[in-house]
Amino acid sequence: MSARGYAADLEHLVADLITRADLPGVSLSVVDREGPLLALSLGSSDLANEAPVTPGTRFEIGSISKSFTELVVLSLVEEGRVDLDAAVTTYLPWFVVQSSFAPITVRHLLQHTSGLIAGSDALPDDYAQAWELRHTATGSAPGTFFHYSNAGYVVLGLVVEAVTGRTAAELVAERVLAPLHLTGSSAQVRHADRALMATGYQPLHDDRPWLPGDALIPATWFEVAAADGNVASTAEDLGRYLRMLLGRGTLDGTTIVSATSFDQMTQSLAPGGEPSEHPSRYGLGVNVETVDGNTCLTHGGGMVGYASFVLADLDAGLGIAVLTNGPGEGGPAELIARTGYALFRAEREGSAVPAVPGVPGVPGVPVVDPWRVADADRYVGTYTGAGRTFSVSADGLLLTLTDGALSGRLGWAGERLACTHPGWRTFQHELDGEGDQRRWTYGGTVLRPPATPRFATPIAVSPLVGHYRSYSPWYTNFRIVARHGELRLVAAGGVEGSRDDPLLVELSPGAYRIGVQPQLPERLVAGPAVDGRVIFVVRDGCTYSRTFTD
Fold first, then answer.
1. Rounded Cα distance, 92 and 312, in Å
2. d(CA 385, CA 381)
3. Cβ count within 10 A of residue 81
4. Residue 117 and residue 328: Cα distance in Å, rounded?
5. What is the pLDDT of residues 352-404, one digit of tens each?
């Protein structure tokens, strides 16, 4: 099949996601070292005005910005102004974090091995965020544990400013955007640029899993300058950026970083990396994966109302950038990027056509449809627990949950199911086990087939159980539920929200680690209780008050 055929397959996938998954708009670029291979823009940049996405539409790219910051840091290393293995306090004497471990270095920040918390949503700007880290503690010795930290890159930006007297955003613009002629990009998200941007979208209901058909509203807008997510760009510009990465730091005779620095970026690896089905370890500002023997640089970017993904195969000389203006925690951008990469790599290598989700008429290939569940028969049955009962039936790959006189559809919301039934809409649904040993989890409720033997389960009676909310647009709300005698933090969404219902591990009265791994630094502290209910909690410096909604 020709590249033109692969481009058509990729366009089918994007159109399917826009239609079936209610994705507002997509802009993408496929490139190799010599130039563009495909530019594609579909959908809407503004649903209210029915404005189309165009190649010049600008999107917030979120954490992909970290690789721009890293290039600035490496350029300062080349100039002898920054030492990767120097303590952060060498450059920021005022920087304090509670720790019994060795000092955090610049390299640790770049690798996400500093032991710092993922981020603080309480304050919007960089100096305040970095200062407030003094009230948090590291969870692991620097260099020993990969834990993604936006806060670490906020601090990196301040290191750059301390060394140069100029902001990281100014240096990104001067040392990366201008030399690469990325004229559709900016190193800050500002009100003045809003007219150039696609409108970002978020769910109307932020306290329940989002399903296609649910209302989307324009996302909260705010200015961004901190070095963990400050860049806005077009797909065309990101394609040029990827060509520079494919050129190992050089594009069209312009060198951004030397080959030696590029080797540092891709070979100084953390113990772990971003979740992937491929071997994955984080380098300096980029994730380094091995995909079918090839070294690929990858990174996702989630902002409030935007999601993006880039992939650069250094061996095949192939790159793809995907930008969307859907909810920032969504997976369509990564799905499109990885599928497009697989198609164009197959074309380049003359290998078999990979199965492409969403391509009509291809036997055995699933259509991108959140309402189709491949193993639907496994879910069929009646489930009971905590005084509640429902039944699940299947019509082919379509699942229906029935409770009383009402029924609702079950569909994919991320990696777990959600349901349109009003009585079962608040939490995601998850089924474990097989046959009579199946266990259906919904928030704090666990249900089983009626024939399953019942075992006494300790009941956790805690004043913490409830629904909490803040004004942070990154992580607006969560619930604390009791499940099998344990307390778990459950978030319906949010760019920085938890995805796996982490366990709350009590470390001292009223103070909890968020997550079972002892190296994790995130903490939740209970506030005062009134009439047997905690009225607010503090999650890594951000206060969430108990809300009136269930």
1. 34
2. 14
3. 13
4. 20
5. 777 777 655 454 555 678 899 988 999 999 999 989 999 999 999 999 999 99
225-247 exposure pattern, b = at least 16 Cβ within 10 A, e = fewer? bbbbbbbbbbbbbbbbbbbbbbb
> Under DSSP, is residue 377 helix (H, G, I), strand (E, B) or coil?
helix
Alpha-carbon span 166 to 520, nearest angstrom = 33
- Give me the torsion for CA of 246, 248, 249, 253, rounded to 10°: -80
Greatest extent of the chain over all pairs of C-alpha atoms, in Å? 72
Q: What single DSSP character describes residue 73?
A: H
pTM higher than the cut 0.85: yes
Q: What six digits make up the tokens of 89?
A: 């306090």
The residues pairing with 468 across neighbouring beta strands, listed in sequence order, are 478, 546
Distance CA 463, CA 545 (A): 13
Angle at 536 between CA 533 and CA 540, to 5 degrees: 135
Question: Which of 217, 221, 203, 193 minimizes the C-alpha distance to 48?
Answer: 217
Given a contact cutoff of 8 angstroms between Cβ atoms, the answer to whether 59 and 353 are in contact is no
Instruction: Give me the residue label for tokens 């050089």.
Output: 250
| Residue 233 and residue 184 in contact, taking contact as beta carbons nearer than 8 Å | yes
Query: How many residues comprise the chain?
Result: 550
**Dihedral, CA atoms, 266, 271, 276, 278, nearest 10 degrees?**
70
Intra-chain end-to-end CA distance of the chain, in Å? 54
Other Cβ atoms closer than 10 A to 103:
15
Contacts 24+ apart (CB under 8 A), 422-431: 424/390, 425/208, 425/209, 426/207, 426/208, 426/479, 426/492, 426/550, 427/208, 427/209, 427/479, 427/490, 427/492, 428/209, 428/492, 431/378, 431/379
Domains with residue ranges and CATH for the chain: 3-65+187-349 (3.40.710.10), 69-164 (no CATH), 376-447 (no CATH), 466-546 (no CATH)
User: pLDDT tens-digit profile of 398-436?
Assistant: 999 999 999 999 999 888 999 999 999 999 999 999 988
